[in-house]
Amino acid sequence: MSSSIAPRPTRSSPDHAGARRAVVIGSGFGGIAAAIRLRAKGYDTTILEMRDKPGGRAYVYEDNGFVYDAGPTIITVPFVLHELAELAGKRLEDYVTIVPCDPYYRINFHDGRTFDYSGDPELLEAEIAKFNPDDVAGYRRFLAYAAKVFDKAFTELADHSFHSVWEMVKVAPDLIRLRAEQSVFKRVSSFIKDPALRQVFSFEPLLIGGNPLRSSSIYAMIHYLEKTWGVHFAMGGTGALVRGLVRLFEDMGGKIRLNARVEEIEVEHGHVRSVRLVSGERVEADVVIANGDVANTYRKLIRPEHRRKWTDRRLERMRYAMSLFVVYFGTNRTYPHLPHHSIVLGPRYEDLLGDIFDRKIVADDFSLYLHAPTRTDSSLAPPGCEGFYVLSPVPHLGGGQDWDAIKEAYADRILASLEKDHLVPDLRKHLVSKLIFTPKDFETQLDAYLGSAFQFEPILTQSAWFRPHNRSEDVDGLYFVGAGTHPGAGLPGVISSAKVLEAFL
Ligand SMILES: Cc1cc2nc3c(=O)[nH]c(=O)nc-3n(C[C@H](O)[C@H](O)[C@H](O)COP(=O)(O)OP(=O)(O)OC[C@H]3O[C@@H](n4cnc5c(N)ncnc54)[C@H](O)[C@@H]3O)c2cc1C
Question: Relative to the CA of 29, which ligand 1 atom is closest?
Answer without folding.
Answer: 25
